[in-house]
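Table 4 source record.
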Amino acid sequence: MSTSQPKAAQPEASPQRTPLLEISGLTVRLAPGAAGGGAAKPVLDGIDLSLAPGEALGLVGESGSGKSMTVRAVTRLLPPGAELDGAIRFEGRDVAAMTPAELRGYRDSGVGMVFQDPRAHINPTRRIGAFLTEALIRNRGISRRTARGRAAAVLAEVGIDDPVRRLRQYPHELSGGMLQRVMIASVLLADPRLILADEPTTALDVTIQAEVVGILDRLRRERGLGMVFITHDLDLALAVCGRVAVMYAGRIVEIREAEALHQRAAHPYTLGLLGSRPSIDARAERLNAVPGRPLSAFEAGPGCAFADRCAHARTVCQATRPELEPFRGGLVRCHRVAEISMQEATA
């Protein structure tokens, strides 16, 4: 978690525009082999999201909240035997109904994925040039020379010096930050309309993290790309994204514009995350923490999944699942949000 509290980014695209990506009622259940013994168990439960062209949407939450599974469902990269309900539409097209050929085209040029560990997704036995140009040569019929020229140009665009020499190198010859730039370059070479960035700065130090995030944000703005940005760092999401969705136990518990979330968060879980950030203005022996442990969707009871960790929980919270409803310019899943907000205002 970064110690700074950057000013939230202002959205360049309105959520009211025709969605680039639209997710409705998305539920994913994993087969027994993937989630444990017994029947298939839910890991996502009724996700509703939309993303406009050019917009950056942040997904934040603790490990196991369903962030990565959400974007993997968007690309149909789910574990074997996974069951998917609900709808995922990209530019109005039903992703679940795509034929194998349509799905290849969608993955090749519609959506690009930036993973958190580039060393796990770049073949260590092949040169960087081969990794970057293979899809251009195979799928688009571009000559090897032209493909290498494009790859070198994009490497320069993402801040890699001497790109022609880098094309001849192997992954082990590059640092983690350089490899993440290579991963971003591979996505950009496909000219996607949507980038899914799954914790792309997890293994990087703070300085390199800032550079990688700056590259993603700049390229998104320049190219008018939509981006879903997954991170554990709430400050980072507030700085990069126009809107932020907070996830807990496979459900969205709050969505609102980043500036509003920073100043007027409403859900007790979001307030807990905001309160757990370190501050450069205050001295403390220990950081605040959200009590208890995070739950997966299949562990949640019939009521609010956060109830056992929430100081504001009452009987209704344990018994009845709250819906995601409008509240002060955002959407919040909490039975007592109005009362809690009033208490926060008068505290």
